[in-house]
Amino acid sequence: MKRKVAVAAAAASLLFGSAASQAADALHAKFSFDGVTDCESPPVRGFPFHGEGTGVLSTDRSATLDMDSNVEGKVRLNAKLGGAPMEAPGGSASLHVLGKHTLRAVRDYPNNIIVINMTVRGSACSMTIENRLKPGKHQYTFYNGSGFSYCGRPQITHSECSGY
After folding, report:
1. What pTM was computed for the model?
2. Minimal CA–CA distance to 29: which of 51, 66, 47, 55?
3. What is the mean pLDDT of the chain?
4. Nearest to 70 by CA among 91, 86, 54, 47
């Protein structure tokens, strides 16, 4: 996973804006996302999920992502370009620096991955969240703090990010 797409998730859910005084050292962003999914186990229809957090991309190409969601709770990821995935409850997570203004957070679960891309240029910020099933899998899995939930495809209903 040397250059991949949350969580978060989100889901990212994601990341970068810069203030004039911080521009030389790092890009900073805050993000939030909301969505809904139907789960078979536990049986829940219309489960709403929410996540929010902050991200920093430094000039040395290191990155940090802090996220809090109603699915996994608080998560902190630290990465450098080319760094290995980190262990996370129920799977792994990684951050990838895709360019001077873009960060990718990847959350890997047994059946699927969530990929969140954030790009910040000045005060403009854009974010995408993609949920992908792994080959041969038919349900999405998410770690819920005590085990896995098995769900249908999550629908992202809102996402936003901004520089700070």
Report:
1. 0.78
2. 55
3. 81
4. 47
